[in-house]
Amino acid sequence: MSLVSRKRLLFWGFGVSAVLFVGSLALWLPLGWSRTGFPPASDLIWPIVLYAMAHGARMLRLGLLLGSIRLRKLLGLYLYTAACSAVIPFKLGELVRVNEFAWQQSGSIARGVVIVWVERVFDMVALGAMILVILTRTDVEVAPIAPVLWLSTAFVLATLCFFFVLPEQLATLNLHVIRTYRDEKAVRILRVLETINDLSQLARPLLSGRMLTLAFVTLFIWCFELLALGLLTRDLNSWSPLLRLVSQFADIIIHRPAHAASNDALVSVFDQWKIQILCVPGIIALILFRKWRRAPSQPEGLTR
């Protein structure tokens, strides 16, 4: 596919994502607004500040992975994709993120996929570490959070195999295919192996010289999230906030009803405020994207 065709595809993808975002927000508003309460400001102010700091750290991590991008474009890109992830159902917001990151990377869909993949790997490692800490407690029931443990382990192992183990064996696999298969079947298999090699080659430069920085930024992200939840529940002296944070992701994975409505009234209200906090700047970023997309995407440097 030519560069022009890829950029045209990404532009149409942006149009579809905008429709999905606006439509999902319109469907969420009646239900979300009815659940939105107005507790005392002292109960929400610090959790909201910590939640904003967590998103600031996520934006910093994204900027490290994207590389050359103006600060205001990074801000708009992050706010729009974060709002889409918060509102669009069935995790389709991840496809929006791939599309937008690919557009910023001069139309490279593969780079967009790899950037989202690397972000999720660091998050899964952090979640896995939290679960290992929880498992040190004998008074905690493991069954509710087991899906997160298995998913994070499988995802990290699959990533290691795909990006590091398999590329080392590609030369052997190519030789085996050439000797074993003939005609069109061999060509198809070799193309698949070439795609795998291309993806692995894209991942390594993203991590080179940044692994420790990305790990520390991810640590701060989850510390801010955990501290915000602890302040909401007024329970910083127990394991409850850590277990609750992991359980939220388990609810998402297996679609438990508990994810839709929290048993803690203040946490449930905060969940609705989080969506509003993301969606308002997300709409502004969507409007600004119309202007930004008229200009060709090119390396710009992380500047104002």
TrEMBL record:
Transmembrane segments: 9-29, 44-62, 74-92, 112-136, 148-166, 211-232
InterPro entries attached to this UniProt entry: L-PG_synthase/AglD
Keywords carried by this UniProt record: Cell membrane, Membrane, Transmembrane, Transmembrane helix
The UniProt record lists the keyword Transmembrane: yes
Location of the protein in the cell: Cell membrane
Membrane topology: Multi-pass membrane protein
Name of the protein in question: Flippase-like domain-containing protein
Organism in which the protein naturally occurs: Caballeronia jiangsuensis
High-level lineage: Bacteria, Pseudomonadati, Pseudomonadota, Betaproteobacteria, Burkholderiales
